[in-house]
Amino acid sequence: MRTGRGMKRWLWRWRANPLRRREDVFEAWLVLALWALVAVGGTLAGVLTARAADDVFMQQHAERTPVWAVLLTDTPSTEVKGYQASARVRWTGADGSTHTGKSLVAGALRAGSTTVLWTDTRGNVTTRPPSRTDAAVEAGLLGAASALSVTGIAFGAAGTARWWLDRRRIDGWGREWALVGPRWGHKTG
């Protein structure tokens, strides 16, 4: 049976070893901290970002209301599907006051036709809030992007630290070789 043999190989940087350097121990702790940061920090960043985005979308749903508006100008007709054009519209706010302004509406509509606008709590025209599904997908994507950003930053910082440790090891090898190398060689001539 080979129990424990793989674990010894895996934990070699922490074991007592005459060839182990301080840089090796530091690198072992660095790799452990990196994986802990990726696992805990990345997950935490992703969850917090997704929750914050979900809160923003819920607030948009609570603050925005649809109202019927009457077009005051014609919109150009086109054969492009889903085309929207800017047009002057008039609508009645929640407080009963009449407002006019510009908004994007479907193309090929005549003046006098009705359309739905979304307004905020102050009665200003705003965009339609995302649907529950779109909000959930966007919150998930933002959370994943946040987690990946934390992971990328952590890997970049650890890579820089490992590069610095490699430079120290190479310099140490150079100093040691300068001491030992001349004893090994002999002059020919």
UniProtKB/TrEMBL annotation:
Organism of this sequence: Streptomyces guryensis
The protein's name: Uncharacterized protein
